[in-house]
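User: Let's play a game. I give you a shape written as tokens, and you guess the letters that built it. Ready? Here's round one.
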């Protein structure tokens, strides 16, 4: 199935979801026995953790719902996530959905995987020494609670605030979870989006070199194994196939350069996780259409966390 068909059916939902927000209360999750040890071994005072979910219409075919009651260690907190304003949606209207043959538009299709576009911000570039400080993800299928984002307390000083604008003051608050506290919530979110017997395909730009190794080390520090049905696609090497109007390869395939190449408007600050996720969603739409890539072809380009050199060296 072509991703251009996917975006044609969900493009307006992608835009509409940016401004529709709701807060959810996250408590401690026990729904999966495999992770009970993680949740029960850390005897801490239970705290309520609030984060932000951008809500849309109800999604069908998922294993379970991601309700307003989730479990997480911590103390009572309030939302601290920066979200997009409704007024900013006007800038996205200049992006047009690709036309799809009428014959195709009436055909019921089935996705071979749950596709999650994600991005992280970190304290630096060292996967071993630095930490994730912001995480954002969007499920391309849409539906209720299809977008999730949160700051993450790295438990260390942030010295690169000039890059993303995230300061120690923003992170050292009781409403910001540590990564070990975020894991059960993240797993529950993914399970709520995942279709039965289908893998989860995570999409990130420069994911093989940056985002995925960072996630691997964060999970490893928390002594939690990443699910085996999580697959990853890096859009950066895919973008290397693009050429400009003169038939030459693009001088740069950074996310920012691809945004400018495709004339995608920027709302909010670049180098914030949710903004980069939104940009990558639009870039993915254009990229897969231009290169005529289907979802099965993206799956063929995917890799597992065990394929990373870092993961092999830890065995």
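Assistant: Ready! My guess for every position:
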């Amino acid at each position: 199935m072509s991703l251009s068909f996917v975006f044609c059916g969900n493009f307006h939902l992608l835009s509409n979801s940016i401004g529709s927000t709701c807060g959810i209360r996250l408590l401690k999750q026990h729904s999966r026995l495999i992770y009970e040890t993680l949740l029960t071994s850390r005897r801490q005072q239970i705290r309520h953790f609030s984060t932000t979910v951008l809500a849309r219409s109800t999604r069908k075919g998922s294993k379970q719902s991601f309700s307003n009651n989730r479990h997480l260690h911590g103390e009572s907190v309030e939302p601290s996530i920066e979200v997009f304003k409704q007024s900013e949606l006007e800038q996205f209207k200049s992006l047009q959905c690709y036309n799809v043959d009428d014959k195709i538009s009436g055909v019921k299709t089935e996705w071979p995987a749950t596709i999650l576009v994600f991005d992280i911000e970190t304290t630096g570039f060292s996967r071993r020494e630095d930490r994730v400080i912001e995480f954002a993800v969007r499920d391309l299928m849409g539906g209720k609670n299809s977008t999730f984002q949160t700051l993450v307390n790295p438990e260390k000083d942030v010295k690169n605030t000039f890059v993303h604008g995230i300061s120690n003051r923003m992170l050292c608050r009781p409403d910001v979870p540590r990564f070990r506290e975020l894991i059960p919530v993240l797993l529950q979110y993914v399970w709520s989006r995942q279709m039965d017997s289908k893998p989860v395909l995570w999409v990130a730009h420069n994911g093989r070199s940056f985002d995925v190794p960072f996630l691997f080390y964060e999970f490893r520090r928390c002594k939690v194994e990443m699910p085996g049905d999580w697959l990853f696609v890096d859009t950066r090497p895919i973008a290397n196939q693009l050429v400009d109007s003169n038939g030459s390869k693009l001088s740069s395939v950074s996310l920012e350069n691809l945004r400018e190449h495709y004339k995608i408007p920027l709302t909010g600050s670049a180098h914030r996780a949710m903004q980069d996720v939104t940009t990558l969603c639009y870039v993915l739409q254009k990229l897969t259409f231009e290169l005529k890539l289907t979802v099965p072809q993206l799956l063929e380009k995917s890799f597992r966390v065990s394929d990373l050199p870092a993961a092999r060296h830890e065995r």
